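Late entry, written up from scratch paper. The run itself happened at the end of the previous shift, but nothing got recorded in the book at the time, so transcribing now.
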Amino acid sequence: MNFLAHIYLSGDNKLITIGNFVGDGVRGNKYKMYPVEIQIGIQLHRHIDTFTDAHPIFRQCTKRLHKNYGHYSGVIVDIFFDHFLAKNWSSYSDIPLAEYIDDFYKILSQHIDILPPRFKRITPLMIEGNWLLSYATIEGIQKVLNGMNQRTKGKSKMNEATTELKAHYIAFEADFTLFFEDLISFSQTKRIEIENEFNFIG
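Output as recorded:
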C-alpha cells in the first residue's frame, strides 16, 4: 500500500503511525535503532505489504497492468488504491480528510529529526505539495505517477497508467473496496499482535 493507507492503518498512536509511514526507508534490522513505538510501526508496515502483495484481489488488479508496466504494476496499484481511499475517505473516518492530513503533517514535522534520511528529504516536499490530499483526484495521481516515472528515468512509463485507471475505474474501485475491508481487519489484529510481542501497552 502507499502512504495514505499505511498512515490510516496505524491506529491512534503517533509514533506507530510514523513508523508505518517510513517503513520503506528502514532496511533489515535497522528498525531496532528506533523507539519501540516506531519499531512497531515499521513491523506493521512490513506485514501490511506482505499481506497486500499476496492478496488475490490485489494480484488481480496488477494483472490488468502487467502487460504494459511489468514489475511496476504493484506500485501503480498501491497508488491507485490510495486514490480510492482518499476519494472515499468519509466511508472510513469521521475526521475530514484535509484535517486528518494536516494533523499528520504536524506530527511528522515535530519528529522530523528521527526520520530515515530519505524521509527527511521528502517530508518538506510532501507537505509543501500536499501530496496526501492530492491523491483524491486523478490529476493528483497523475502528478504522483509523473514523479515516479522520472525517478525510473522514463523506463517504467508509469506516467501513462492513468489511462488504465480511467478505462477500468469502476473495476479498480470495486476491488479496492473489497480488499480494503480485509486489510483493515488484518491490520487491526496484526498491530495488537506486534504490540504484545514488544510488551507495549498503548
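The chain has a mean pLDDT of 95.
(Scratch paper discarded after transcription.)
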